[in-house]
Design brief:
- By secondary structure, the protein is an alpha+beta fold.
- The protein is built from eleven helices and eleven strands.
- The strands form three sheets. Strands 3, 4, 5, 6, 9, 10 and 11 form a seven-stranded mixed beta sheet that branches. Strands 1-2 form a two-stranded parallel sheet.
- The protein is about 40% helix and about 20% strand.
- The model has no long low-confidence stretch (mean pLDDT about 95).
- Helix 1 runs parallel beside helix 2, helix 6 packs parallel to helix 7 and helix 7 packs parallel to helix 9.
- The chain is globular.
């Protein structure tokens, strides 16, 4: 994926750019591939870590190595179109009603298919009452859905632009992404913190990129054990950090049924993920301390966040 991704970065209209590639202890020569594939006019820093810190730890390493005022998180299987960053920046800096400020903006991600078909991959993120987070439009044939710029709950880490000021404001103990998440749901957790600190998250349909997504729910049985383990663990971390008493009560019918189905699935078909429950129990004191740190910094009333469980987007 890297050569095509970095070729797309080199073709972006916006300048100046700096590129940081963090390799989490792979053995496939990715840092060397990145150095060979990077555009000559885009300064590259290739960082080879000695351990696999996952998406969260890798992104935190990248953030620590730049002072740029805007940061584009980019998966190696994403290919932004040339105006992508320019249009995201314009949306991020456009005035919002009531003096609100945008901390992040998501573009329109497309998933090329067979025989020339194009499906939507992500048009911003939304929440369900069962505490699931979804990419809007994911998997649907692209028929021009979501044509207007909107406010959305969150932005996918695969290809979204963040204001550095917002990331630093939402960070806990200097960590932008929570390294406990490692893989999956870390972008949703960050968006909770951004919103709890009063930052808006936007969607800009004119900023388009391709995303060759292969990790989707229907392929769970084919994914590595470690990936599914983190996916299960992280669903509980998300709620431990951000669920309030009122939200617990009104979402209980949805979350309880989902939890029971997940437990049954793990017991019957995915016993390799059972240690996730034990991990959460063993870490309960540290997780509670993390929750207290997050909730103690909240600026926005809890019920304002609850509204995002009932809508998929809102006007600017």
């Amino acid at each position: 994926d890297l050569p095509a991704c970095l070729a797309a970065v080199g073709a972006l209209d916006h300048r100046p750019l700096e590129l940081i590639v963090v390799d989490c202890a792979s053995r496939d020569g990715s840092p060397e591939v990145a150095r060979a594939a990077a555009s000559a006019d885009v300064p590259l820093m290739a960082v080879a870590l000695a351990d696999n810190r996952g998406f969260s730890g890798g992104m935190n390493e990248a953030f620590a190595r730049t002072a740029a005022p805007y940061v584009l998180t980019l998966n190696p299987d994403a290919r932004p179109h040339p105006p992508f960053v320019t249009r995201l920046l314009a949306r991020l800096e456009a005035p919002l009603a009531g003096g609100a400020r945008a901390g992040a903006v998501a573009g329109r991600l497309l998933r090329p298919g067979r025989e020339g078909t194009v499906r939507l991959d992500a048009c911003g993120m939304y929440l369900s009452p069962a505490w699931r987070h979804f990419d809007r439009g994911s998997g649907a044939l692209d028929r021009g859905q979501h044509p207007r710029a909107e406010r959305v709950f969150g932005a996918t880490g695969a290809a979204s632009l963040f204001r550095r000021e917002a990331l630093l404001d939402a960070a806990v103990e200097g960590e932008v992404f929570d390294p406990r998440f490692h893989t999956f749901r870390e972008d949703a957790e960050l968006c909770f913190r951004l919103r709890e600190r009063g930052w808006e998250v936007l969607y800009e349909p004119e900023a388009t990129a391709e995303h060759r997504r292969t990790v989707v729910p229907e392929r769970r049985a084919a994914l590595p054990r470690e990936v599914n383990y983190h996916s299960l663990k992280n669903r509980y971390l998300l709620r431990l950090y951000h669920q309030t008493a009122f939200n617990f009560l009104w979402t209980l019918p949805f979350t309880l049924s989902r939890d029971l189905l997940a437990l049954a699935y793990v017991l019957l078909r995915e016993r390799s993920s059972l240690p996730a429950y034990a991990w959460v129990w063993r870490q309960r004191r540290a997780l509670w301390q993390r929750r207290r740190a997050i909730q103690g910094r909240r600026r926005v009333p809890a019920r304002a966040i609850d509204g995002w469980f009932l809508r998929r987007g809102a006007p600017l």
